[in-house]
Design goal:
CATH architecture of the largest domain in chain A: 3-Layer(aba) Sandwich
Order of helices and strands of chain A: EEEHEEHEHHHEHEHEEHEHEEHEH
Shape of chain B: globular
Number of helices of chain B: 10
Number of strands of chain A: 14
Radius of gyration of chain B: 19 Å
CATH class of the largest domain in chain A: Alpha Beta
Largest interface: A-B, 30 and 27 residues
Helix content of chain B: over 70%
Structural class of chain A: alpha/beta
CATH superfamily of the largest domain in chain A: P-loop containing nucleotide triphosphate hydrolases
Number of strands of chain B: 0
Shape of chain A: elongated
Distance between the termini of chain B: 22 Å
Oligomer: heterodimer
Low-confidence stretches of chain A: 312-317
Number of domains of chain A: 2
Strand order of the largest sheet of chain A: 6-7-8-3-9-10
Strand content of chain A: 25-35%
Order of helices and strands of chain B: HHHHHHHHHH
Mean pLDDT of chain A: 88
C-alpha cells in the first residue's frame, strides 16, 4: 500500500523560529491520521504546507504522489481543506457557495448546481435556503465548510482543528462525517489539541512538538510508551492524600496527586500485586477509599510524558 | 492549466461580486448616491468656486468625477481586506483554479461599479446644469481617462490591502484618502491657493485627470495637453503597483 502523504525533513521558518523543524511523516492511503500537539507546535503550518498554501523552506512533501512545491496544481486537484477558520463567502448562502466552488473546480455550471444540492442534502443544510452564511451557527458553518472541501471527492482531506469552538453536538456531527469519509476510503489528516478526538477518530496518531514528530503510532502503542498500566486511588478525604502517598507501596517519585479530584495515580509494573498491596495498605492505615482502579494510561499522560521528555532532550543538547 | 480556465474562473469570481451586489442592494445604492450627494452639495452650497472662470458646475462636475474614481481606492481596499481576513481566500488558493482570477474578479466588479457610478454622476451633472461642449467623442474619451485613473487606484487599493492586511488599517487609509482627494483641483484651481499648496495640487494625478476631463468637455479650467498627462500618470502608477500587487498575492505562500 502506498502512502498518501510523505514528508521528509520538512522545514518552514518564520523569522528566527522554525515552525517546522525537519518534520518526517508518513500517512497510509485510506487511513485517518491525527496530528496532536500544543499550540504553536507547527500543526497548522504543516497543514498549510501540505495543502499548497505555504511553500516549504526545506525538505520534501508529497501528497497523493505529487510534490507540493513543484506540482501544486496536481496536488490541488486531489485534496480538500477544512481550515481552522471557515473558508466560505459569508455574504452568500450555502448553495451559492458550493455552486461557486464547484465552478472553480471546473465541474461546469449544471453539474456544479447538482453537486451543490447533493452536498447540502447530505450535510443537512438543504433547508437553509437564501440565508447568508453569516447567519449560520458554528456547527452549520463547519458542515458547509466540510461540504465545500468535498466537492471534488478528494483523495486526501486535511482538517485543521475541525472541532475547535464547536459545541458537543457540532463536534459529534463533524466526527460522524469524518468516520463516514474514512469508511469510504478517503485519507484524512486531522490536527487537534484534543486527545479524545485523536483517540476516537484516528488509526494512527503523531505527537508534534517544536515542529517535529516526537512520537508516532497507534493510540495503544503510544499509551504503552509511558510505561504501561497505572493505578488510580480516589480517597474520601483529600486531606489524607499526603499520608496515603507515604503509606502506599508505590514509588513516591512517580505518584501524581490531584487534590480537586481527591485522586492519586501512579504507574505500576505488576498489576495484581500493586492492586492487592494498595488495598491492604489502605485498610491497615484506616484510609477510606472511594475507588481503586487499574487502567491504561490516557493519551493526556502520554502526551505530557513525551512532550516534556522532548523538551528536556532539547535543553540538554 | 489552460487559458480557458483563466477566463471561466475570472468570470466565476466576477459573478461572485455581482452576487454580493444582489445581496446588498442598499450598499450598492449608497455607493452610487454618496458621490452624487457630494456633487449636489458642492454644486449648490459652495456655488461659484474660487478663481474659476465661467460656470462653476462646468468646473465642478469633472472634478467630482475624478474624485469619485479616487475614492474607489478605498472601496477596493475594503473588499480585498475583507476577503483576506476571512478564510475564503485560503480555499481559493487551495483549489485547482487560475491563481489570478481572484484579483481579476475584483477588478472587473470594481470597474463595473465605477462605470455605473460615472453614468449616474454624468446624468445628475447634466440635471444640475453641466453642459459638455466636446461632443460624444469628447465625453467618451473623458470616461476612458476616468476609468483608466480608476484602474490605477484599483491596483493601489489591492496592494495597500495586502500590505496592511488587517481591517483596522483600512481606517487609516480611509482617513488619508480624503485630504489626498481634496488636495487636488477638484473644487478649486491651484492659482487660488498659496504657492506650496498649489504646487502639490498641480502634481496630484487626480488634478491631471480632472483637467483633462474639463478640457475634453470644453469646460473652464481645461488645458490642452492634460489628456496626455492624464493618460501617463495612471499608466505610471499601474507600472509600479500592478506588479507589486501581483507579487504580494503570489507571496501569500511565503
Amino acid at each position: 500500500m502506498t502512502d498518501a502523504i510523505v514528508t521528509e525533513g520538512l522545514r518552514k521558518r518564520y523569522g528566527d523560529k522554525d515552525a517546522l523543524d525537519g518534520l518526517d511523516l508518513r500517512v497510509a492511503r485510506g487511513s485517518v491520521h491525527a496530528v496532536l500537539g500544543p499550540n504553536g507546535a507547527g500543526k497548522t503550518t504543516l497543514v498549510r504546507v501540505l495543502s499548497t498554501l505555504l511553500r516549504p523552506d526545506g525538505g520534501r512533501a508529497e501528497v497523493a504522489g505529487r510534490d507540493v512545491a513543484r506540482e501544486a496544481y496536481e496536488v490541488r486537484l486531489r485534496i480538500g481543506l477544512l481550515g481552522q477558520h471557515a473558508a466560505l463567502d459569508e455574504e452568500l448562502d450555502g448553495r451559492q457557495n458550493l455552486e461557486m466552488f464547484g465552478r472553480l473546480y471546473h465541474l461546469g455550471a449544471r453539474p456544479a448546481r447538482v453537486r451543490a444540492d447533493e452536498l447540502l442534502e447530505r450535510f443537512g443544510l438543504a433547508g437553509t435556503g437564501r440565508k447568508p452564511v453569516r447567519a449560520y451557527s458554528g456547527g452549520m458553518r463547519r458542515r458547509l465548510d466540510l461540504a465545500a472541501s468535498l466537492i471534488r471527492d478528494p483523495e486526501v482531506l486535511f482538517l485543521d482543528e475541525p472541532t475547535t469552538g464547536l459545541d458537543p453536538r457540532g463536534r459529534a456531527e463533524v466526527w460522524a462525517a469524518v468516520r463516514s469519509l474514512a469508511g469510504a476510503g478517503t485519507t484524512v489528516l486531522l490536527t487537534t489539541q484534543y486527545l479524545e478526538e485523536a483517540d476516537q477518530l484516528a488509526d494512527r496518531i503523531c505527537l508534534v512538538d517544536g515542529g517535529r514528530v516526537v512520537a508516532d503510532g497507534t493510540a495503544d502503542e503510544l499509551k504503552a510508551r509511558t510505561g504501561g498500566d497505572r493505578i488510580d486511588v480516589v480517597l474520601r478525604d483529600a486531606g489524607q492524600l499526603g499520608a496515603a502517598v507515604a503509606l502506599l507501596p508505590l514509588d513516591a517519585a512517580t505518584v501524581s496527586v490531584d487534590t480537586d479530584r481527591r485522586l492519586l495515580s501512579a504507574p505500576v509494573t505488576d498489576r495484581m500485586a500493586a492492586l492487592s498491596g494498595v488495598v491492604r495498605a489502605l485498610e491497615a492505615a484506616g484510609l477510606e477509599a472511594e475507588d481503586v482502579v487499574l487502567r491504561r494510561p490516557t493519551l493526556d499522560e502520554v502526551f505530557l510524558h513525551l512532550t516534556d521528555d522532548g523538551r528536556r532532550v532539547k535543553e540538554a543538547a | 492549466m489552460s487559458a480557458a480556465y483563466a477566463l471561466t474562473d475570472s468570470w466565476t469570481m466576477t459573478r461572485r461580486e455581482l452576487a454580493h451586489w444582489a445581496r446588498q442592494p442598499v450598499r450598492v445604492v449608497v455607493g452610487l448616491v454618496f458621490p452624487v450627494m457630494l456633487l449636489v452639495m458642492f454644486g449648490y452650497l459652495v456655488g461659484g468656486g474660487r478663481g474659476v472662470r465661467g460656470e462653476y458646475v462646468d468646473y465642478l462636475v469633472p472634478g467630482m468625477l475624478a474624485l469619485t474614481m479616487a475614492f474607489g481606492l478605498e472601496a477596493t481596499m475594503i473588499a480585498v481586506t475583507r476577503d483576506l481576513d476571512k478564510g475564503v481566500i485560503d480555499r481559493f488558493r487551495s483549489m485547482p483554479m487560475a491563481n489570478g482570477a481572484v484579483l481579476v474578479g475584483r477588478s472587473a466588479a470594481d470597474m463595473l461599479q465605477s462605470a455605473l457610478s460615472l453614468a449616474v454622476m454624468i446624468a445628475v451633472g447634466h440635471a444640475i446644469g453641466w453642459r459638455t461642449h466636446g461632443g460624444v467623442a469628447g465625453l467618451l474619451a473623458a470616461v476612458g481617462l476616468l476609468l483608466l485613473f480608476r484602474f490605477a487606484m484599483l491596483w493601489i487599493g489591492i496592494h495597500l490591502a495586502m500590505v496592511a492586511g488587517k481591517p483596522e488599517m483600512v481606517q487609516a487609509v480611509q482617513i488619508l484618502v480624503w485630504p489626498v482627494g481634496f488636495l487636488s483641483n477638484a473644487f478649486a484651481t491651484p492659482d487660488s491657493m498659496p504657492g506650496w499648496l498649489g504646487t502639490a495640487v498641480a502634481w496630484n494625478p487626480l488634478s491631471h485627470t480632472a483637467t483633462a476631463v474639463r478640457d475634453l468637455a470644453g469646460a473652464p479650467g481645461g488645458e490642452p495637453g492634460h489628456v496626455w498627462a492624464a493618460a501617463v500618470w495612471p499608466l505610471a502608477l499601474l507600472t509600479v503597483f500592478f506588479p507589486l500587487a501581483v507579487r504580494r498575492f503570489a507571496r501569500l505562500s511565503r
